[in-house]
Amino acid sequence: MRRESLGGQFWAELVGTMILILLGDGVVANTVFAPRLGEPGYNWNTITLGWGFAVVFAVYIAGGITGAHINPAVTVAAMVRRTISVTTGLVYIVGQVIGAFIGAALVHLLYFSSFQDLGYRNVFYTGPATAYANAVFNQYYAEIIGTFMLLLGVYAIVDNVRNVGPGANLWPFMVGMLVLSIGLSLGGPTGYAINPARDFGPRLYASLFAGDAEAFASAYWLVPIIGPLIGGTLGALFYDFLMKPFLPLPQEPEPAPRGADVTHIPFPESER
Predict the structure, then answer these.
(1) What does the alpha-carbon distance between residue 255 and residue 139 come to, in Å, rounded to a whole number?
(2) Is residue 266 one of the residues assigned to a domain?
């Protein structure tokens, strides 16, 4: 595949999402099965840290090709903002779902002995906490507000022209810390899918190959799809229309004096 081809972009989204699920569902499996330290050695902090760093490394690996959407909510927001075409966006989403499916398979294989010894335990997809099992409004609200904060935060982080985004190549790390913050603060009610592919791909794998008969038994499986798509789009539009207009315009470089060497003017990185 050639550089900057649609096939290359599809591959980047597939690999990036696969890595996200391998490391993300991997930390859930490590916490649930506790093969090393026993159950007291792991907790919710372990899961949120694991998912945060899963995002960091997935973005570092695939970000140079597509920006590493690795999330249909990010892709749909970009389609609504018309920064990518519908065709390109749909290719991204297909790659993301396939990558999530493969990532779940890799986790299943890695922890296969634990599945055999301890029986099936869901480590693949999200679900509501006991207190929220019948609270449909709260379920959708949790996914909407979580993904709203994700996209709002992402757009602020990558805006290092007008806003105070990180310099150099630190933005993937900060996106991971944003996911960590969402998990610690907003993740309790639903497990913070905030990513339709992250939930649907592993859920489909669990249903087909891990013997999970409950994966699609209730209508809840729609929550981590519909909620993030709504919340992500709202978060991106909020930044565009209710934050960006109040940010200072990028400073134009001062014109060079006549006869000066203009080949070394330090333009901002984003304008090169």
Answers:
(1) 55
(2) no
Roughly what angle, to the nearest 10 degrees, separates helices 136-158 and 72-80?
70
**Count of domains observed in the chain:** 1
How far out from the chain centre does Cα 63 lie? 12
Give domain status of residue 261, yes or no.
no
Q: And the tokens for 161? A: 């022209």
Structural domain boundaries enclosing 12 = 6-247
Residue 103 within any structural domain of the chain: yes
- Of 75, 234, 81, 76, nearest to 145 by C-alpha is 234
> Sign of torsion, CA 68 71 72 77?
negative
**Closest to 135 in 3D by CA, of 194, 190, 76:** 190
Q: Return the number of other C-beta atoms located less than 10 Å from residue 226's C-beta.
A: 13
CATH number of the domain bearing residue 126: 1.20.1080.10
Q: Smallest Cα–Cα separation from 19: which of 90, 85, 95, 102?
A: 102
> Two tokens at 57?
């490394």
45-84 as b/e: b if 16+ CB within 10 A: ebbbebbbbbbbbbbbbbbebbbbbbbbbbbbbbbbeeeb
- pTM of the complete model: 0.91
Tens place of pLDDT per residue across the chain (272 aa): 566 799 999 999 999 999 999 999 999 999 999 999 988 889 999 999 999 999 999 999 999 999 999 999 999 999 999 999 999 999 999 999 999 999 999 999 999 999 999 999 999 999 999 999 999 999 999 999 999 999 999 999 999 889 998 987 899 999 999 999 999 999 999 999 999 999 999 999 999 999 999 999 999 999 999 999 999 999 999 999 999 999 998 876 666 566 544 334 343 443 33
